[in-house]
Amino acid sequence: MSQHTHAIRILIVEDDEFVLGLLGAVLDGARFETMGAASIKALHALRASEHFDAILLDLGLPDGDGLDVLRQIRSEGSFVPIIVLTRRTDVDARIKALELGADDYVTKPVDPRELLLRIRRLVSTRAEPGPKVEIEQLELGKWTLDLGQRTVTHSDRGEVALTRSEFDMLTAMFRAPRRVLSREHLLDALHRNDTGPDDRTVDVLVSRLRRKLGGSSGQFTLIRTVQGVGYKLVPGDS
Ligand code: CA
Fold first, then answer.
1. Distance 86 CA to ligand 1 centre (A)
2. What pLDDT, in 10s, does the model give residues 26-76?
3. Residues surrounding ion ligand 1 at CB below 5 Å
4. What angle, rounded to 10 degrees, do the helices at 201-213 and 164-175 form?
5. 99 and 151, same structural domain?
6. CA distance 114 to 12
């Protein structure tokens, strides 16, 4: 028995009984431990008494909007990984969810393999501890990314808390500084391949990163927009 035998606990928030049962069966089959909540009230009751490693969050709930839940959890300062469940046509809701701090999204009808891939990516540091922990640091200007600890630190301002998706995208940028990276390349870093040319996931994450890394001045010189192509990371004074 190792110290890593505890199951990953996932809270599924979904009011559709059939979908809840299906998601539960998929995750249980992959040896996750799951609990279900069919309303926002039930979600809050469970969160008050239980620890969860990730939350699957339906947006249309009988007693309110999942986006409000998302906003509330993030305003509490919690960085629990959250994957929202949206209909494929709900582009606005998906973008809003990403802006509010969702780590990822899965579209309904849910493909079990895709769901497992996304969950494993978000909880992988817990689910696959492995014998060797990667200790690698990437530095640029005053910024240091620690890939083992998954932290980003500024030499004057200290550590900045990022969500999993923000960190993954920033890592892709730090691995290729000063090079123009296309949105497609950055989507690959997030393991997204189901998005069209109009998808704004990358832009939303960039604006979140700029807000977090930009500091109180609002000035930002780290992530430059390259019109019509993508983004470029350049060291600056900020
Ligand atoms: Ca629903």
1. 9
2. 999 999 999 999 999 999 999 999 899 999 999 999 999 999 999 999 988
3. 15, 58, 60
4. 90
5. no
6. 16
